[in-house]
Amino acid sequence: MSDFLWGAATASYQIEGAAREDGRVPSIWDTYSHTPGRVLNGDTGDVAADHYHRWPEDVEIMRELGLGAYRFSIAWPRIHDQRGIDFYSRLVDALLERGIKPVATLYHWDLPQELEDAGGWTARDTAYRFAEYAERIGAALGDRVHLWTTLNEPWCSAFLGYGSGVHAPGRTDPVAALTAAHHLNLAHGLAARVLPGPVSVTLNLHHVRGEDADAVRQVDAVANRVFLGPMLDGAYPADLLEDTEQITDWSFVQAGDEATCNAPIEVLGVNYYSPTLVRRWDGVAPRDTADGHGDGTASPWVGCADIDFVRQPGPYTEMGWPIDATGLTELLLRVHRDHPGVPMMITENGAAFDDRVDANGQVRDQRRIDYLRDHLAAVGRARAAGADVRGYFVWSLLDNFEWAYGYSKRFGVVHVDYATQQRTWKDSANWYRDFIASSPEGPRS
Ligand code: PNW
User: Fold this and answer.
1) Does residue 110's CB lie within 6 angstroms of at least one atom of ligand 1?
2) In degrees rounded to 5, what are phi and psi of residue 108?
3) What is the DSSP track for 161-178?
4) Which residue windows are coiled coil (predicted)?
5) Which candidate in 153, 242, 245, 266 is catalytic?
6) Per residue, what are the HEC states of 21-79?
7) Residues 174-219: pLDDT tens digits?
8) ipTM of the complex model
9) Is pLDDT of 294 > 70?
10) Active site residue 116
Protein backbone atom coordinates (compact mmCIF):
# COMPACT_ATOMS: atom_id res chain seq x y z
CA MET A 1 0.00 0.00 0.00
CA SER A 2 1.24 3.43 -0.94
CA ASP A 3 1.09 6.31 1.55
CA PHE A 4 0.69 8.97 -1.11
CA LEU A 5 -2.47 10.98 -0.48
CA TRP A 6 -4.58 11.65 -3.55
CA GLY A 7 -7.30 14.15 -2.87
CA ALA A 8 -9.48 17.09 -3.72
CA ALA A 9 -9.94 20.31 -1.76
CA THR A 10 -12.76 22.72 -0.92
CA ALA A 11 -13.43 25.44 1.65
CA SER A 12 -16.45 26.07 3.85
CA TYR A 13 -17.56 29.51 2.67
CA GLN A 14 -16.98 28.58 -0.95
CA ILE A 15 -19.29 25.54 -1.02
CA GLU A 16 -21.52 25.20 2.04
CA GLY A 17 -24.19 27.88 1.76
CA ALA A 18 -26.67 27.60 4.67
CA ALA A 19 -25.21 30.86 5.91
CA ARG A 20 -27.87 31.38 8.56
CA GLU A 21 -28.61 27.80 9.56
CA ASP A 22 -28.01 25.82 12.72
CA GLY A 23 -26.78 28.79 14.69
CA ARG A 24 -24.03 29.90 12.32
CA VAL A 25 -23.00 33.45 13.16
CA PRO A 26 -21.93 35.98 10.49
CA SER A 27 -18.38 35.91 9.20
CA ILE A 28 -16.28 38.62 7.57
CA TRP A 29 -17.08 37.07 4.18
CA ASP A 30 -20.83 37.44 4.78
CA THR A 31 -20.30 41.10 5.56
CA TYR A 32 -17.90 41.62 2.66
CA SER A 33 -19.95 39.82 0.03
CA HIS A 34 -23.10 41.67 1.11
CA THR A 35 -21.32 45.02 0.74
CA PRO A 36 -22.15 46.39 -2.74
CA GLY A 37 -19.18 46.61 -5.08
CA ARG A 38 -16.96 44.12 -3.26
CA VAL A 39 -17.76 40.87 -5.11
CA LEU A 40 -18.34 40.57 -8.85
CA ASN A 41 -22.06 40.57 -9.77
CA GLY A 42 -22.97 40.96 -6.10
CA ASP A 43 -22.53 37.22 -5.55
CA THR A 44 -22.51 35.90 -1.99
CA GLY A 45 -21.91 32.54 -0.30
CA ASP A 46 -25.47 32.42 1.07
CA VAL A 47 -26.28 29.31 -0.97
CA ALA A 48 -23.03 28.51 -2.82
CA ALA A 49 -22.99 24.84 -3.89
CA ASP A 50 -25.44 23.98 -1.08
CA HIS A 51 -22.95 21.44 0.23
CA TYR A 52 -24.33 21.86 3.76
CA HIS A 53 -27.39 19.95 2.55
CA ARG A 54 -25.94 17.96 -0.35
CA TRP A 55 -22.84 16.59 1.40
CA PRO A 56 -23.94 12.93 1.10
CA GLU A 57 -24.04 13.28 -2.69
CA ASP A 58 -20.68 15.07 -2.67
CA VAL A 59 -19.04 12.39 -0.52
CA GLU A 60 -20.36 9.82 -2.99
CA ILE A 61 -18.65 11.71 -5.82
CA MET A 62 -15.41 11.55 -3.84
CA ARG A 63 -15.77 7.81 -3.47
CA GLU A 64 -16.39 7.37 -7.19
CA LEU A 65 -13.32 9.48 -7.92
CA GLY A 66 -11.29 7.09 -5.79
CA LEU A 67 -9.99 9.83 -3.51
CA GLY A 68 -7.77 8.74 -0.65
CA ALA A 69 -8.29 12.02 1.18
CA TYR A 70 -10.59 15.05 1.24
CA ARG A 71 -9.37 18.48 2.28
CA PHE A 72 -12.19 20.66 3.58
CA SER A 73 -12.41 23.54 6.00
CA ILE A 74 -14.41 23.99 9.15
CA ALA A 75 -16.39 27.23 9.45
CA TRP A 76 -15.37 28.90 12.70
CA PRO A 77 -18.76 30.71 12.76
CA ARG A 78 -20.54 27.33 12.99
CA ILE A 79 -18.64 26.09 16.01
CA HIS A 80 -20.66 28.26 18.39
CA ASP A 81 -23.51 25.79 18.02
CA GLN A 82 -23.56 22.04 18.61
CA ARG A 83 -25.54 21.53 15.39
CA GLY A 84 -22.65 23.06 13.45
CA ILE A 85 -20.17 20.74 15.13
CA ASP A 86 -22.47 17.79 14.40
CA PHE A 87 -22.40 18.65 10.69
CA TYR A 88 -18.62 18.16 10.55
CA SER A 89 -18.82 15.10 12.76
CA ARG A 90 -21.24 13.42 10.33
CA LEU A 91 -19.11 14.46 7.37
CA VAL A 92 -15.97 12.97 8.92
CA ASP A 93 -17.76 9.71 9.72
CA ALA A 94 -19.11 9.46 6.17
CA LEU A 95 -15.61 9.97 4.77
CA LEU A 96 -14.10 7.35 7.06
CA GLU A 97 -16.82 4.83 6.14
CA ARG A 98 -15.67 5.18 2.52
CA GLY A 99 -11.99 4.95 3.31
CA ILE A 100 -11.38 8.67 2.63
CA LYS A 101 -9.01 10.37 5.06
CA PRO A 102 -10.34 13.68 6.44
CA VAL A 103 -7.86 16.57 6.17
CA ALA A 104 -9.45 19.44 8.08
CA THR A 105 -8.45 23.11 7.81
CA LEU A 106 -9.47 25.28 10.75
CA TYR A 107 -9.25 28.63 9.01
CA HIS A 108 -10.02 29.17 5.35
CA TRP A 109 -10.85 32.87 5.80
CA ASP A 110 -14.28 32.89 7.47
CA LEU A 111 -13.47 34.84 10.63
CA PRO A 112 -16.50 35.42 12.87
CA GLN A 113 -17.55 39.05 12.31
CA GLU A 114 -17.67 39.69 16.06
CA LEU A 115 -13.92 39.05 16.20
CA GLU A 116 -13.32 41.44 13.29
CA ASP A 117 -15.34 44.05 15.17
CA ALA A 118 -12.80 43.67 17.99
CA GLY A 119 -9.88 44.22 15.57
CA GLY A 120 -9.77 40.97 13.63
CA TRP A 121 -6.28 39.68 12.89
CA THR A 122 -4.76 43.00 13.90
CA ALA A 123 -5.81 42.14 17.47
CA ARG A 124 -3.55 39.79 19.39
CA ASP A 125 -6.57 38.37 21.17
CA THR A 126 -7.78 36.81 17.89
CA ALA A 127 -4.83 34.39 18.05
CA TYR A 128 -5.88 33.26 21.53
CA ARG A 129 -9.49 32.91 20.43
CA PHE A 130 -8.31 30.79 17.51
CA ALA A 131 -6.50 28.46 19.89
CA GLU A 132 -9.70 28.08 21.95
CA TYR A 133 -11.62 27.24 18.80
CA ALA A 134 -8.94 24.70 17.81
CA GLU A 135 -9.20 23.05 21.21
CA ARG A 136 -12.99 22.86 20.99
CA ILE A 137 -13.22 21.35 17.52
CA GLY A 138 -10.18 19.17 18.21
CA ALA A 139 -11.94 17.64 21.20
CA ALA A 140 -15.12 17.09 19.17
CA LEU A 141 -13.54 15.40 16.15
CA GLY A 142 -10.53 14.02 17.96
CA ASP A 143 -8.58 11.24 16.33
CA ARG A 144 -11.04 10.84 13.47
CA VAL A 145 -9.24 13.60 11.57
CA HIS A 146 -6.20 12.27 9.69
CA LEU A 147 -4.42 15.62 9.46
CA TRP A 148 -5.23 19.05 10.86
CA THR A 149 -4.32 22.22 9.00
CA THR A 150 -4.29 25.34 11.13
CA LEU A 151 -4.45 28.05 8.44
CA ASN A 152 -5.02 28.21 4.71
CA GLU A 153 -2.86 30.82 2.96
CA PRO A 154 -2.26 33.32 5.74
CA TRP A 155 -0.63 35.53 3.05
CA CYS A 156 -4.10 36.08 1.55
CA SER A 157 -5.69 36.68 4.96
CA ALA A 158 -3.09 39.30 5.92
CA PHE A 159 -2.12 40.99 2.67
CA LEU A 160 -5.30 40.72 0.59
CA GLY A 161 -7.57 41.14 3.62
CA TYR A 162 -5.77 44.02 5.37
CA GLY A 163 -3.32 45.29 2.70
CA SER A 164 -4.96 45.51 -0.73
CA GLY A 165 -8.48 45.02 0.59
CA VAL A 166 -9.62 42.73 -2.23
CA HIS A 167 -10.54 40.09 0.34
CA ALA A 168 -12.54 40.41 3.56
CA PRO A 169 -12.41 42.43 5.74
CA GLY A 170 -11.34 44.80 2.96
CA ARG A 171 -8.90 47.01 4.85
CA THR A 172 -6.01 48.82 3.13
CA ASP A 173 -3.33 49.49 5.71
CA PRO A 174 0.22 48.09 5.39
CA VAL A 175 0.83 48.17 9.15
CA ALA A 176 -2.42 46.28 9.73
CA ALA A 177 -1.32 43.72 7.12
CA LEU A 178 2.02 43.02 8.83
CA THR A 179 0.36 42.96 12.25
CA ALA A 180 -2.20 40.47 10.93
CA ALA A 181 0.57 38.32 9.48
CA HIS A 182 2.21 38.09 12.89
CA HIS A 183 -1.01 37.25 14.70
CA LEU A 184 -1.71 34.54 12.11
CA ASN A 185 1.74 33.07 12.75
CA LEU A 186 1.03 33.19 16.46
CA ALA A 187 -2.40 31.62 15.97
CA HIS A 188 -0.80 28.77 14.06
CA GLY A 189 1.72 28.09 16.82
CA LEU A 190 -0.85 28.23 19.61
CA ALA A 191 -3.36 26.02 17.79
CA ALA A 192 -0.73 23.48 16.73
CA ARG A 193 -0.03 22.83 20.39
CA VAL A 194 -3.63 22.07 21.38
CA LEU A 195 -4.80 20.01 18.39
CA PRO A 196 -5.14 16.29 19.12
CA GLY A 197 -3.36 14.89 16.05
CA PRO A 198 -0.81 15.54 13.31
CA VAL A 199 -0.67 19.20 12.30
CA SER A 200 0.11 21.05 9.09
CA VAL A 201 -0.23 24.55 7.71
CA THR A 202 -0.95 25.51 4.11
CA LEU A 203 0.94 28.41 2.51
CA ASN A 204 0.46 29.87 -0.96
CA LEU A 205 4.19 30.08 -1.52
CA HIS A 206 5.10 32.42 -4.36
CA HIS A 207 7.71 31.12 -6.76
CA VAL A 208 9.41 34.46 -7.41
CA ARG A 209 11.54 34.97 -10.51
CA GLY A 210 13.39 37.90 -12.04
CA GLU A 211 16.75 39.13 -13.21
CA ASP A 212 17.16 41.49 -10.25
CA ALA A 213 18.21 39.17 -7.44
CA ASP A 214 17.55 41.76 -4.76
CA ALA A 215 14.01 42.40 -5.99
CA VAL A 216 13.42 38.63 -5.95
CA ARG A 217 14.83 38.39 -2.42
CA GLN A 218 12.65 41.25 -1.17
CA VAL A 219 9.42 39.83 -2.58
CA ASP A 220 10.32 36.34 -1.37
CA ALA A 221 10.68 37.76 2.15
CA VAL A 222 7.26 39.43 2.30
CA ALA A 223 5.52 36.61 0.40
CA ASN A 224 7.10 33.46 1.82
CA ARG A 225 9.67 33.89 4.56
CA VAL A 226 7.35 36.11 6.61
CA PHE A 227 5.58 32.80 7.41
CA LEU A 228 8.27 30.17 6.80
CA GLY A 229 10.69 32.04 9.09
CA PRO A 230 8.66 32.07 12.31
CA MET A 231 6.77 28.82 11.62
CA LEU A 232 9.73 26.64 10.61
CA ASP A 233 12.79 28.45 12.00
CA GLY A 234 11.34 30.38 14.96
CA ALA A 235 12.45 33.81 13.73
CA TYR A 236 11.47 36.57 11.32
CA PRO A 237 14.07 37.05 8.57
CA ALA A 238 16.41 39.98 9.29
CA ASP A 239 16.09 41.30 5.74
CA LEU A 240 12.28 41.47 6.05
CA LEU A 241 12.53 43.55 9.22
CA GLU A 242 15.01 45.84 7.49
CA ASP A 243 12.96 46.19 4.29
CA THR A 244 9.90 47.24 6.30
CA GLU A 245 11.54 49.41 8.99
CA GLN A 246 10.06 52.60 7.51
CA ILE A 247 6.60 51.07 7.87
CA THR A 248 6.70 49.50 11.33
CA ASP A 249 9.08 48.72 14.18
CA TRP A 250 7.40 45.29 14.56
CA SER A 251 6.66 46.08 18.22
CA PHE A 252 3.60 43.81 17.93
CA VAL A 253 6.04 40.88 18.15
CA GLN A 254 6.44 40.20 21.87
CA ALA A 255 9.25 38.35 23.62
CA GLY A 256 8.83 34.62 23.08
CA ASP A 257 6.35 34.95 20.21
CA GLU A 258 8.68 33.68 17.51
CA ALA A 259 9.35 30.52 19.51
CA THR A 260 5.59 30.06 19.93
CA CYS A 261 5.06 30.31 16.17
CA ASN A 262 7.61 27.54 15.66
CA ALA A 263 5.49 24.46 16.46
CA PRO A 264 6.45 21.05 15.06
CA ILE A 265 4.49 20.17 11.92
CA GLU A 266 3.99 16.82 10.24
CA VAL A 267 3.92 18.23 6.74
CA LEU A 268 3.90 21.61 4.98
CA GLY A 269 0.96 22.26 2.68
CA VAL A 270 1.86 24.11 -0.52
CA ASN A 271 -0.69 25.75 -2.81
CA TYR A 272 0.57 26.52 -6.30
CA TYR A 273 -1.11 28.06 -9.33
CA SER A 274 1.47 30.27 -11.13
CA PRO A 275 4.95 31.76 -10.76
CA THR A 276 5.54 35.44 -9.93
CA LEU A 277 7.82 37.65 -12.07
CA VAL A 278 9.30 40.86 -10.62
CA ARG A 279 11.69 43.64 -11.52
CA ARG A 280 13.02 46.74 -9.78
CA TRP A 281 11.21 49.83 -11.02
CA ASP A 282 13.53 52.63 -12.14
CA GLY A 283 11.06 55.37 -11.24
CA VAL A 284 10.69 56.43 -14.86
CA ALA A 285 9.33 53.66 -17.07
CA PRO A 286 5.55 53.12 -17.20
CA ARG A 287 4.57 50.78 -14.41
CA ASP A 288 3.56 47.21 -14.96
CA THR A 289 0.35 47.00 -12.98
CA ALA A 290 -0.06 43.25 -12.68
CA ASP A 291 -0.61 43.71 -8.92
CA GLY A 292 -2.33 47.10 -8.94
CA HIS A 293 0.74 49.30 -8.40
CA GLY A 294 0.30 52.61 -10.11
CA ASP A 295 -3.39 52.30 -10.98
CA GLY A 296 -4.64 53.92 -7.80
CA THR A 297 -5.56 50.73 -5.96
CA ALA A 298 -3.74 49.52 -2.88
CA SER A 299 -1.03 46.90 -3.30
CA PRO A 300 -0.73 43.79 -1.14
CA TRP A 301 3.07 44.05 -1.48
CA VAL A 302 4.07 45.90 1.65
CA GLY A 303 7.34 47.83 1.25
CA CYS A 304 7.62 46.96 -2.45
CA ALA A 305 6.63 50.32 -3.97
CA ASP A 306 9.66 50.28 -6.27
CA ILE A 307 9.05 46.76 -7.54
CA ASP A 308 6.99 45.90 -10.59
CA PHE A 309 5.01 42.69 -10.80
CA VAL A 310 5.41 41.87 -14.45
CA ARG A 311 2.66 40.36 -16.56
CA GLN A 312 4.04 37.09 -17.87
CA PRO A 313 3.54 35.54 -21.28
CA GLY A 314 0.52 33.26 -21.74
CA PRO A 315 -1.29 31.00 -22.07
CA TYR A 316 -3.46 32.03 -19.16
CA THR A 317 -6.29 30.50 -17.21
CA GLU A 318 -9.63 32.27 -16.86
CA MET A 319 -8.17 34.03 -13.78
CA GLY A 320 -5.56 35.65 -16.05
CA TRP A 321 -2.89 33.59 -14.30
CA PRO A 322 -0.09 32.31 -16.58
CA ILE A 323 0.20 28.56 -16.99
CA ASP A 324 3.73 27.45 -16.13
CA ALA A 325 4.32 24.13 -14.40
CA THR A 326 8.12 24.58 -14.21
CA GLY A 327 7.56 26.97 -11.31
CA LEU A 328 6.07 24.13 -9.26
CA THR A 329 9.11 21.88 -9.66
CA GLU A 330 11.45 24.75 -8.80
CA LEU A 331 9.35 25.82 -5.82
CA LEU A 332 9.25 22.32 -4.31
CA LEU A 333 13.01 21.92 -4.76
CA ARG A 334 13.64 25.30 -3.17
CA VAL A 335 11.58 24.41 -0.06
CA HIS A 336 13.32 21.04 0.05
CA ARG A 337 16.72 22.77 -0.07
CA ASP A 338 15.89 25.40 2.56
CA HIS A 339 13.99 23.04 4.89
CA PRO A 340 15.34 19.56 4.12
CA GLY A 341 13.53 17.73 6.91
CA VAL A 342 10.06 19.07 6.14
CA PRO A 343 7.78 16.83 4.03
CA MET A 344 5.37 18.63 1.71
CA MET A 345 1.92 18.14 0.26
CA ILE A 346 0.34 20.00 -2.64
CA THR A 347 -2.83 21.11 -0.88
CA GLU A 348 -4.14 23.08 -3.88
CA ASN A 349 -3.40 23.12 -7.59
CA GLY A 350 -5.82 23.66 -10.41
CA ALA A 351 -7.20 26.07 -12.96
CA ALA A 352 -10.33 28.06 -13.80
CA PHE A 353 -11.71 27.76 -17.31
CA ASP A 354 -14.92 28.80 -18.97
CA ASP A 355 -16.60 25.41 -18.63
CA ARG A 356 -20.06 24.73 -20.03
CA VAL A 357 -22.28 21.68 -20.09
CA ASP A 358 -22.82 20.91 -23.79
CA ALA A 359 -25.96 19.61 -25.50
CA ASN A 360 -24.90 16.03 -24.73
CA GLY A 361 -24.50 16.79 -21.05
CA GLN A 362 -20.68 16.75 -21.25
CA VAL A 363 -18.13 19.26 -20.02
CA ARG A 364 -15.14 19.12 -22.37
CA ASP A 365 -12.41 20.74 -20.26
CA GLN A 366 -9.32 19.48 -22.07
CA ARG A 367 -7.33 22.55 -20.97
CA ARG A 368 -7.84 21.60 -17.33
CA ILE A 369 -6.71 18.04 -18.06
CA ASP A 370 -3.58 19.45 -19.73
CA TYR A 371 -2.97 21.77 -16.78
CA LEU A 372 -3.32 18.97 -14.24
CA ARG A 373 -1.24 16.51 -16.25
CA ASP A 374 1.60 19.03 -16.65
CA HIS A 375 1.56 20.04 -12.99
CA LEU A 376 1.49 16.43 -11.80
CA ALA A 377 4.50 15.74 -14.01
CA ALA A 378 6.16 18.77 -12.40
CA VAL A 379 5.51 17.25 -8.97
CA GLY A 380 6.97 13.99 -10.28
CA ARG A 381 10.14 15.77 -11.42
CA ALA A 382 10.55 17.40 -8.00
CA ARG A 383 10.13 14.02 -6.29
CA ALA A 384 12.66 12.41 -8.62
CA ALA A 385 15.11 15.17 -7.66
CA GLY A 386 14.63 14.47 -3.97
CA ALA A 387 11.70 16.58 -2.77
CA ASP A 388 9.58 14.68 -0.22
CA VAL A 389 6.03 15.25 -1.53
CA ARG A 390 3.40 13.13 0.17
CA GLY A 391 0.14 14.18 -1.38
CA TYR A 392 -1.71 16.12 -4.06
CA PHE A 393 -5.12 17.78 -3.75
CA VAL A 394 -6.78 19.25 -6.80
CA TRP A 395 -8.48 22.61 -6.37
CA SER A 396 -11.30 22.01 -6.51
CA LEU A 397 -13.74 19.15 -6.13
CA LEU A 398 -16.65 21.37 -7.17
CA ASP A 399 -17.19 24.71 -8.87
CA ASN A 400 -17.65 27.20 -6.06
CA PHE A 401 -17.69 30.79 -4.79
CA GLU A 402 -14.38 32.16 -6.04
CA TRP A 403 -14.09 34.99 -3.48
CA ALA A 404 -14.01 38.44 -5.12
CA TYR A 405 -14.87 36.81 -8.47
CA GLY A 406 -18.04 35.22 -7.14
CA TYR A 407 -19.41 32.38 -9.27
CA SER A 408 -17.80 33.68 -12.47
CA LYS A 409 -14.73 31.42 -12.16
CA ARG A 410 -15.05 27.65 -12.23
CA PHE A 411 -12.24 25.61 -10.65
CA GLY A 412 -14.08 22.33 -10.10
CA VAL A 413 -13.45 18.98 -11.70
CA VAL A 414 -17.18 18.61 -11.12
CA HIS A 415 -19.47 21.26 -12.65
CA VAL A 416 -22.20 22.86 -10.56
CA ASP A 417 -25.30 24.36 -12.17
CA TYR A 418 -26.14 26.95 -9.52
CA ALA A 419 -29.78 27.23 -10.67
CA THR A 420 -30.49 23.55 -10.02
CA GLN A 421 -27.45 22.55 -7.92
CA GLN A 422 -26.94 19.69 -10.34
CA ARG A 423 -23.45 18.18 -10.30
CA THR A 424 -21.94 17.08 -13.65
CA TRP A 425 -18.60 15.34 -14.00
CA LYS A 426 -16.29 17.29 -16.27
CA ASP A 427 -13.93 15.31 -18.50
CA SER A 428 -11.19 16.25 -16.02
CA ALA A 429 -12.99 14.39 -13.23
CA ASN A 430 -12.96 11.18 -15.26
CA TRP A 431 -9.35 11.82 -16.19
CA TYR A 432 -8.36 12.44 -12.55
CA ARG A 433 -10.11 9.25 -11.40
CA ASP A 434 -8.15 7.24 -14.00
CA PHE A 435 -4.88 8.98 -13.16
CA ILE A 436 -5.26 8.25 -9.44
CA ALA A 437 -6.10 4.62 -10.14
CA SER A 438 -3.02 4.21 -12.34
CA SER A 439 -0.58 5.98 -9.98
CA PRO A 440 -1.26 4.85 -6.42
CA GLU A 441 2.32 5.63 -5.44
CA GLY A 442 1.95 9.25 -6.59
CA PRO A 443 3.07 11.23 -9.64
CA ARG A 444 6.35 10.32 -11.35
CA SER A 445 8.37 12.37 -13.76
C1 PNW B 1 -6.61 30.19 -3.14
N2 PNW B 1 -3.61 35.60 -5.11
O3 PNW B 1 -6.88 31.54 -3.21
C4 PNW B 1 -7.56 29.69 -2.08
O5 PNW B 1 -7.00 28.88 -1.09
C6 PNW B 1 -8.81 29.12 -2.61
O7 PNW B 1 -9.84 29.30 -1.66
C8 PNW B 1 -9.14 29.73 -3.96
O9 PNW B 1 -10.39 29.36 -4.44
C10 PNW B 1 -8.03 29.30 -4.91
O11 PNW B 1 -6.75 29.64 -4.41
C12 PNW B 1 -8.17 29.87 -6.31
O13 PNW B 1 -8.09 31.27 -6.29
C14 PNW B 1 -6.02 32.49 -3.73
O15 PNW B 1 -4.17 36.65 -5.49
C16 PNW B 1 -6.57 33.73 -4.02
O17 PNW B 1 -2.38 35.45 -5.11
C18 PNW B 1 -5.77 34.75 -4.47
C19 PNW B 1 -4.41 34.55 -4.63
C20 PNW B 1 -3.86 33.31 -4.33
C21 PNW B 1 -4.66 32.28 -3.88
Assistant:
1) no
2) -115, 55
3) IIII-SSTT----HHHHH
4) none
5) 153
6) CCCCCCEHHHHHHCCCCCCHHHCCCCCCCCHHHHHHHHHHHHHHHCCCEEEEECCHHHC
7) 999 999 999 999 999 999 999 999 999 999 999 999 999 999 999 9
8) 0.91
9) no
10) no
